[in-house]
Amino acid sequence: MTDATHYPVSTGPLGGRYVEAKLGRMRKPRKWLVQATSDDRIIVQTEGAIGIFGFDGKGRLSTRGGYFPHLAFAAPFEFPAGFVAACLDVCQPLGAETTAHGCTVAHTVEVIG
Fold this sequence. Notes:
The protein is mostly beta strands.
């Protein structure tokens, strides 16, 4: 699967964008929340897993937890080109926000340090 069209995309209730994919040794595809970072990388999160990668697809993937601290122990991983393309297609611009039902969600992860 090298074409972004092989990865279904969807939008959540507060503007989050999702790409469905099976990464690593997962048994079935999951919906990955796609978030841009302020240092030109992409973070993807799903229940029980988290990953981070650059535009070249090289990054890290943890399937042993889906929170930011799990990235510290994540294994090196090369994300499929089609998945990277789909994530770049649906990624919100830096600084984007969505407000609904009195709740505002920022779609950019600000990197400190």
